[in-house]
Amino acid sequence: MGGLERSTPKSIVRHSTAGRARDRSGHERAVVEQRLWIGWSFRQAKEEAPAAVRDLFERYSENGAMGVEQLKRFLVEVQSEEEGETTKVEALAIIDSILRDSKHQIRFPKKGGGGGGSLGLDGFFRYLFGEANPPISPSLGVHHDMTAPLSHYFIYTSHNIYLTGNQLNSDCSDVPIIEALKRGV
C-alpha cells in the first residue's frame, strides 16, 4: 500500500481580531491579527496490491487473468479449501461477485460465452482483502470460550484499538473493544 496524501482542504477558517497593544518601546499601536486555520483530510495515496499479492497472482494466473480453474487451484492450495465441485462453484461465484461489484475492473470474457470471466490483479486483490474472504470463517461463530469473568483474560491491545476510524482524525471509544470481545476475537 502507498502512503497517505493530503487532499483538498476540508475546511478553511479565517479569524481576524483588532485591538491595541504596546510595542517594545511602550508606545500603544493599533494591531490587526489575522489567523488562518486549514483542516486537511488525508486519503490513501495509492491502493495497489502488495508484492506478496502480486507474486500469488502471477503464480496462479495465466496471461494476466485468473479464471475459475486458476482461482479454484488457489483456493485449494493456498486457502486449504476442500477440492471438488463446490470449490469450482465457489470460485465462479467469487469471480462473478468481484466483477459485478467492481466498476473499474477489467473483465476478461469467458471463451465461448456463458458468463464467468476472469479476475485481473485488482480483482484478485479486492477478493483477498474484501468481505468475501474473512480472516476467520463466519461458520466458526464465536470460537473462543468467553464465559469466564473478564479479569481471567489477558487482553492485548494496541493504542489504535480504541479508535473509531483512522488514526489521524477519529474519535476514541471503548466500543471497538467491547464489540471484539462479544465476537470472541
From TrEMBL:
- Gene3D superfamilies, alphabetized: EF-hand, Phosphatidylinositol (PI) phosphodiesterase
A GO CC term attached to the entry: plasma membrane
Name the UniProt key words of this record, in alphabetical order: Hydrolase, Lipid degradation, Lipid metabolism
Catalyses which reaction(s): a 1,2-diacyl-sn-glycero-3-phospho-(1D-myo-inositol-4,5-bisphosphate) + H2O = 1D-myo-inositol 1,4,5-trisphosphate + a 1,2-diacyl-sn-glycerol + H(+)
Annotated region Disordered: where? 1-26
SUPFAM superfamilies with a match to the protein in the record: EF-hand (SSF47473), PLC-like phosphodiesterases (SSF51695)
According to the entry, every stretch annotated as the Phosphatidylinositol-specific phospholipase C X domain falls at 146-185
**Enzyme Commission number(s) from the entry:** 3.1.4.11
Molecular-function GO term, any one = phosphatidylinositol-4,5-bisphosphate phospholipase C activity
Q: Where in the cell is it found?
A: Cell membrane
Q: How does it sit in the membrane?
A: Peripheral membrane protein
Report the PROSITE patterns cross-referenced here. PIPLC_X_DOMAIN
Pfam short name (any one): PI-PLC-X
> Tell me, what is an example of a GO biological process annotation in this record?
release of sequestered calcium ion into cytosol
Cite the PANTHER family for this sequence.
PHOSPHOINOSITIDE PHOSPHOLIPASE C 2, PHOSPHOINOSITIDE-SPECIFIC PHOSPHOLIPASE C FAMILY PROTEIN
Q: What is this protein called?
A: Phosphoinositide phospholipase C
In the UniProt record, the gene name given for this protein reads PLC2
